[in-house]
Design goal:
By secondary structure, the protein is of the alpha/beta class. It folds into two domains: 5-183, Rossmann fold (3-Layer(aba) Sandwich); 190-373, N-(1-d-carboxylethyl)-l-norvaline Dehydrogenase, domain 2. Helices cover 51% and strands 11% of the residues. It contains 16 helices and eight strands. Strand 4, helix 5 and strand 5 form a beta-alpha-beta unit. Helix 13 packs across helix 16 (349-363) and helix 15 packs across helix 16 (349-363). Bound molecules: nicotinamide-adenine-dinucleotide (NAD). Residues 9-15, 32-34, 38, 77, 90-93, 97, 101, 118-120, 141-144 line the site of nicotinamide-adenine-dinucleotide (NAD).
Length: 374
């Protein structure tokens, strides 16, 4: 099927971004929200993005006019769905509300229409169960900011058909995204791998192995990350990190238990740069950095990186995604300088097994050796 019209439900941060990249790349778009005021706020975001595009010389006036002429907006999801080839839902993260919205859209949309969700953490299968077309239901997980982030995780439910996957991919490619595919499972690819690395960084800090500053330095100067885990966590928002980790904890188990340091910060409102305090203080307040522990920074970087490598191997062991897609996803979605499998090749598989075995002997089950290394 050749998608021409896309309905985007929800005009917040993600919905407006998805509508923008869709209209920019030639799709007819109908974006909705629950009130005129909210959908207009979404349109305002898009106009701002367009103005930025023009100012930066990335878009001509004619292209901007073309983009805007392909965008319609309103307050009825059913109206938007009724002549759409693809509906992308980007409303807030709540299973019951999303299911209600999907049941309505399913009833209003033509037979051929594919329904997609941008959920970060909810089960694609459960969302699909609210519709009568689970084979034409798929996860399309964009990253923020949508216009700038190249990655699109396409998430397959148990019943998602090959044809639906092909359409989602074709749409993603036309939106100039690099598409990777994962089976429906908690955290999909990027969050599932990112969270154990962040958790390990916090655990090293809690165990008194290294200070936050030493850990951040190890990850930037040795592992080559653009930002250390504490700085990155503050920037992304500790509430978002805590929610992502909590989902994995609920769905997978104790190895994803959010560490106390993270939980306490979030509960006290210290959720990162947006609150001017998180792991670090921002906005003028000074904090005495902890005296260095004299940690072996090579070892710190290796331990944190190996947790990402281990999780990536578990994803392959579990048949959720393949190596190439995992490497691509982590480079484009989490700014890893190399994919986990590229890192593993560099370290050497025998050495990876040795490091993980040692961690397993010291700390137990959450550091078990993946099947592919046994
Ligand atoms: N923010 C991110 O970084 C990010 C990244 C990837 C995926 N996501 C996912 O994208 C989705 C949206 O997140 P967001 O950050 O854009 O949230 P947001 O709060 O910015 O926007 C959500 C919008 O949905 C609207 N809405 C709520 N109920 C609606 C309904 N019944 N019909 C139409 N619109 C409705 C709200 O009014 C709001 O404007 C969530 O599922 C989230 O998990 C977010």
């Amino acid at each position: 099927m050749d998608v021409k019209k896309i309905a985007v439900i929800g005009s917040g941060l993600m919905g407006a971004g998805i509508a923008y990249v869709s209209a920019w790349n030639g799709f007819e778009v109908h974006m909705t929200d629950i009130s005129q005021e909210l959908v207009e706020a979404g349109m305002e975001r898009i106009r701002n993005d367009v103005m930025t595009g023009i100012d930066k010389g990335k878009m001509s006036m004619t292209e901007a006019e073309g983009l805007m002429s392909r965008l319609k907006y309103g307050t009825s999801a059913e109206e938007a769905a009724k002549d759409a080839d693809l509906v992308i839902e980007a409303i807030f993260e709540n299973m019951e509300v999303k299911k209600e919205v999907f049941a309505k859209i399913d009833a209003a949309a033509p037979e051929h229409t594919i329904l997609a969700t941008n959920t970060s953490s909810l089960s694609i299968d459960e969302l699909a169960s609210a519709t009568n077309r689970p084979e034409r239901f798929v996860g399309m997980h964009y990253f923020s900011p949508v216009a700038a982030m190249k990655l699109l995780e396409i998430v397959l439910g148990e019943k998602t058909s090959e044809g639906t996957l092909a359409v989602a991919k074709a749409v993603g490619e036309k939106q100039k995204k690099t598409c990777v595919t994962a089976k429906n499972s908690p955290g999909f690819i990027v969050n599932r791998i990112l969270m154990p690395t962040m958790r390990e960084a916090i655990m090293l800090y809690e165990r008194g192995v290294a200070t936050k500053e030493e850990i951040d330095t190890a990850m930037t100067s040795i592992a080559g990350m653009p930002a250390g885990p504490f700085t990155l966590g503050d920037f992304v928002g500790l509430d978002i990190a805590f929610n992502a980790m909590s989902t994995l904890y609920r769905e997978i188990g104790d190895c994803f238990t959010p560490p106390d340091t993270l939980k306490n910060l979030v509960e006290s409102g210290a959720i990162g740069t947006k609150a001017k305090k998180g792991f670090y203080l921002y906005g003028g307040e000074e904090e005495e950095p902890e005296p260095p522990k004299g940690a072996d920074l090579e070892e710190v970087a290796q331990t944190i990186s190996i947790m990402g490598i281990r999780e990536a191997m578990l994803l392959v062991d579990e048949g959720i995604a393949d190596r190439e897609d995992i490497d691509l996803a982590m480079k484009l979605g989490a700014a890893f300088p190399q994919g986990p499998f590229e890192q593993a090749e560099k370290i050497g598989m025998d050495k990876c097994r040795e490091i993980i075995t040692k961690l397993y002997e010291e700390h137990g089950e959450c550091y078990s050796v993946p099947k592919m290394l046994q």
